[in-house]
Structure formats: C-alpha cells, structure tokens
Amino acid sequence: MLATYLIGLREGLEATLVVTILVAFLVKADRKDRLPQVWAGVAAAVALSVGFGALLSYTSTTLLRDYDQRELFEAITSILAVAFVTWMIFWMRRAARSIAGDLRGKLADALAVGSIAVAVMAFLAVVREGLETSLIFYSAVQGAGVDGGPLYALLGGIASAVLLGYLMYATAVRINLTVFFTVTGVLLILVAAGILKYGVHDLQESGVLPGLNTLAYDISGTLDPSAWYTALVTGIFNITPTASVVEALAWVAFAVPVLFLFLRPTGSRPAAVPTTPASSPQP
Predict the structure, then answer these.
(1) d(CA 227, CA 231)
(2) Residue 207: which region, alpha, beta or left (left: phi > 0; alpha: psi -120 to 50)?
(3) What is the DSSP letter of 277?
(4) Nearest 5°: CA angle at 51, between 46 and 57?
(5) Cα–Cα distance measured from residue 173 to residue 166, given in angstroms and rounded to the nearest whole number
(6) Rounded CA separation 16/148 (Å)
(7) How far apart are CA 191 and CA 168, in angstroms?
(8) Minimal CA–CA distance to 131: which of 211, 25, 14?
(9) Which of 124, 162, 191, 268 is the most exposed place for a label (fewest CB within 10 A)?
(10) How far is the first Cα of the chain from the last one, in angstroms, to the nearest whole number?
C-alpha cells in the first residue's frame, strides 16, 4: 500500500502541477472562458487512464486463461512499467526547468486555434501521467492480493497530490519541489526495482527464464509475515522471504546503477518545477 500511495502522490502531483500551470496561465491572460475546455481535456485524460487500467486487469483475469500466458503478460507489463518509471524520473529532472514555459507556449498556440485545440492540449498534457500511473499501479500490485487496499492507497496518494497542488496554487503554502521529487525519485527507483524483480519471477514462472528453484536466499524462517516491517520491506523493496538468484541479480543490477546515476551531482541542478504555479505564468 505504501508503494501504491507513493505512485499516486508522485504521478498525481506532476499532473496537478501541469493543470495548475494551465489554469494559472488562463487566469493571468484573462481567458477564463477557456477553463471549461481545459477541464474537459483533463477529464478525458482521466477517463482514458482509468479505462486503460481496467483493460490491463481484464486482459490478465479474463482474456488470458492459460497460466503461462498470464504470467508472461504480467512480466511484460512489469518490465514496461519499470522502463516508464525510469524514463519519467530522469525526464523530469532534465526537463523541469523548461516545463512551465513549454506548457504556456503550447497553450498560447492552442488558444489561437480554438476551443477544441485547448481541450486537446490539456488532454495530451495530462494523459501521459495517467497512463503511466495505470501501468505502474497494475504492475506494482500483482503480488499484493485481491483486496482493495492498494487501490485505496493509490487514490489517497492522488488526493494528497491534488490537495498539495491546490494549497500551492491558492494559498501561501510553499513546498521545496526539488527535494520532493528527489526523495520520491529515489523511492520510486526502489519500487521499480521491486517491480522488475516481480517481472523476472513471472518470466521464470512462465518458463521463459530458468532458475526458478535456484534460490539466492531463504529467510522465511526469520521474517515474520505479520510484522509491520515485513509489510514495509516487501511493499517498497519487494524483498520476499525467498528469491531466486536471477531475481536478486535483476534487483541489484537495476537499483544500484540507476540510483548512482540519479543521485550523482550534475552541476547546477534544476528546480523540479515552479513552486508558485499561481503567480509564475505570464500572459
């Protein structure tokens, strides 16, 4: 649940900041008449993202009845989710300085074209975050059971992100977003490493990779499955009571170099995104 809350918080805040930049631009430009088109585009992006998540679940549970096919499908989606998470984290760090200006420029161009263009622009600005969230969430909860806990955690993270975005937009609340995105980036890398480990396990279950029963460790006798720390470690790091050698190698081979590249100094580190979205846009 903690992992899915983090996914909802991180992705939700990125989408919320995009929306606040668009809204603030229209307010500053005295074009509030175009706000309904922005909200329509946002709503369409949310609907498509929810539909995509439902399609993933339906494909796994209904369309794929063969066990090996289902395991292979889950493995592929897990690997894709890891690729999207990694790309998103590094893209945000690289493009953060210019994202607000790019959004304002695209919205200005859309205003010159018409209302449909505004809605499409808002849709495209938000839908990427939504599709990423659906894919990452689906992959993160494959081993979490069938209860609604992970979904509630995801919705809680999104709600928290919306609240933070509103507070930054409408009040004097300020958050150091550079620190926020750095910390959540590190945690998401660890979540992604766990998703990759699970994907490798599915590849072994489906027979694509060998070594399912060649264990790297077995701590089932010492790890209390009912303890809170067990749930925390399992949820974030996906350190299960047993793991094959291939799973453990995949976790380390991903987490160590990606964390190194993400945390190494890059000279003048850019700000994550504008911390005052209500006042930064210019008409």
Answers:
(1) 7
(2) left
(3) T
(4) 130
(5) 9
(6) 24
(7) 27
(8) 14
(9) 268
(10) 42
Residue 181 has pLDDT above 70, yes or no: yes
Count other C-beta atoms under 10 Å from residue 17's C-beta. 25
* Mean pLDDT computed over 161-173: 81
Tell me the CB-side half-sphere exposure of residue 251, using CA atoms within 13 A: 19
- Residue closest to 138 by CA, chosen among 70, 91, 226, 205: 70
Q: Interior CA angle at 205 toward 203 and 206, to 5°?
A: 65
How much is the pTM? 0.81
> What's phi and psi for 210, nearest 5 deg?
-85, 180
Provide the CA 150 distance to its chain's centre, in angstroms.
Answer: 14
Q: Tokens representing 126?
A: 């938000």
Instruction: Return the percentage of the chain with pLDDT > 90, whole number.
Output: 35
**Distance between CA atoms of residues 113 and 116, nearest Å:** 8
Which alpha helices (DSSP H) does the chain contain, by range?
A: 2-28, 35-58, 67-113, 115-140, 149-170, 177-205, 228-237, 245-263
Closest CA to 216 of 198, 199, 241: 241
